[in-house]
Amino acid sequence: MAPYSLLVTRLQKALGVRQYHVASVLCQRAKVAMSHFEPNEYIHYDLLEKNINIVRKRLNRPLTLSEKIVYGHLDDPASQEIERGKSYLRLRPDRVAMQDATAQMAMLQFISSGLSKVAVPSTIHCDHLIEAQVGGEKDLRRAKDINQEVYNFLATAGAKYGVGFWKPGSGIIHQIILENYAYPGVLLIGTDSHTPNGGGLGGICIGVGGADAVDVMAGIPWELKCPKVIGVKLTGSLSGWSSPKDVILKVAGILTVKGGTGAIVEYHGPGVDSISCTGMATICNMGAEIGATTSVFPYNHRMKKYLSKTGREDIANLADEFKDHLVPDPGCHYDQLIEINLSELKPHINGPFTPDLAHPVAEVGKVAEKEGWPLDIRVGLIGSCTNSSYEDMGRSAAVAKQALAHGLKCKSQFTITPGSEQIRATIERDGYAQILRDLGGIVLANACGPCIGQWDRKDIKKGEKNTIVTSYNRNFTGRNDANPETHAFVTSPEIVTALAIAGTLKFNPETDYLTGTDGKKFRLEAPDADELPKGEFDPGQDTYQHPPKDSSGQHVDVSPTSQRLQLLEPFDKWDGKDLEDLQILIKVKGKCTTDHISAAGPWLKFRGHLDNISNNLLIGAINIENGKANSVRNAVTQEFGPVPDTARYYKARKGPSSPFTGSLRMPRRQKHGIRWVVIGDENYGEGSSREHAALEPRHLGGRAIITKSFARIHETNLKKQGLLPLTFADPADYNKIHPVDKLTIQGLKDFTPGKPLKCIIKHPNGTQETILLNHTFNETQIEWFRAGSALNRMKELQQ
User: Is 18 labeled as catalytic in the residue annotation?
Assistant: First the structure.
């Protein structure tokens, strides 16, 4: 059969019509598969085109790329209300991806739904439960042994319900998606906040909670508040030590951790072509750190090259024919526009403790001296889902080779995390891995590892002040090693490598010299490396499990005595009354990420057991009453104790105390049944997509979370679980509420979209104040609240 592109050309001549009309005809013939693993699931550019044309006619204006892909997936493009930042869109995503830590709860919820098969292509990726200790092979063997029960559950659940299963050792979910599943124009949702990584291949890929994934897997239209669009125009070209990572580090410094909330960040302009496909993925990946719904790049020749190299030339050819729909229209409007000249962009390093504290590498040493941050770098870590591509490893190896040529090795400890089995095998074959080992590096397993706190760190004691530099995406307090005194900085892999060789934050590789073992000074040259291997990728070991065609005999067992897995019980329905006399469990001071609400690290083992993982509820949040973490006043006993234990005390039934807080098991008490509320600050719930941060407060008796503002994913997760995420109509009202007050929330009987709720603050001295609370609930989400959760509502509709 003639190549697809040749068929297109012949049919163009025969029909004499525009290119994308021809592609619409051929799409039905060619039936290009979404991936090699799902040969009977096809890319529907014809439907995308049809929907875009309907919406374009309605709106009568040029469309951004983000709008084309999002509106192109509308369930009802002819009548859907479309207003950026206001209307809720009902969408039909193409596929779902889940990492193993969040997939447990997602699959438990899907099992509870009573459905027999997933309605869209879906995959599970085992990457979060592998702890970094001594090196890749040994750490992987240990993880398989420790997590056997969970891996077996995910594998059998995948087989039972038609979900593809990537075994431990396959690699990090986002790298696997980029290599196999992402494509220009795809709408993909994933149960991880860094799902936007797929935007580097021209897709709209959005991080969500497990309940959202269940909706899509159940075939229900997925709701998303119509995003605004922030344009980032790139001019010039990257060169020298500047890298794609520096683009997003710069953008994070401009927009801050909440500047992208409710918006898609769309990169465009002539500078785009100077960035590799995997470099674009890096930029989109870390867009999660500015709160963006997702980020995306327009389809170009760099994406085509990557698709071809990863065995998807047929998709690239099809994308070529539909390219008009995979780039923004000329003259389209952005809600905000940022311009960055890549030719002037300097290498950046962001941190510590927040990913938006941006510094040029040339200046961070002076800032560190002024602020009292440790200058000596204890560990340099490269890899993670953000920077673990072939190009990333090649540029780091190029730096390492120069040091080795002068007899030097790293002064700091140094670790390398390949992004996938394919990357690991290819850098082993091409010599990069050995070069990095020769420099003193340890190659870890193809997994998340230290980036998410899966790091058995031995070189420091908890509480010891120290500095690490990483090519990761997030650097919240205690995130990597559970030590609140670790000052973590994020930068590019090549800068991490250079700093690990020098051993100090004061080193600037653009200007400073190193001294070789021969006593001669030398300066590192800017690294240069191939964006893709000259030959083919080495796929390494086969780590994919196809779901069987017939799963009728497949069983999924969850032991009632398991400490890792627990079947879910439905949450209680709303009783039809206002929420009276809510106790304040904690009034949070300052930043409160999902890491603060539901810590990772050693707690990852309980991600499939709601009652056990609830013992980490808000243990990292700072209580404004005493300035301490995990210490709140019990309103009944007036004693201070751990947050989870206090919540359990209030709850109508007793549960076990935390195995990690050191608290004693609480004695049996009368059933108090006290409902409670959390008071939060700005951008509450920023960070990961983990819905456990919403499930836990609901499980332990929480009814509302009241803050100055929310991060997008967390706000949605709270709604899905039947909680009330509310914001102060006047942010200054945060100061009117004290931890000893009680709150009554009124107006729930007349709960309607756009109408504020009334909150009565009852002070201990008998006085009262009334404030207004805003919300973003639509009619569907109000039904979730009334039913007790989105899952409860789904079951009601099934009946």
Answer: no
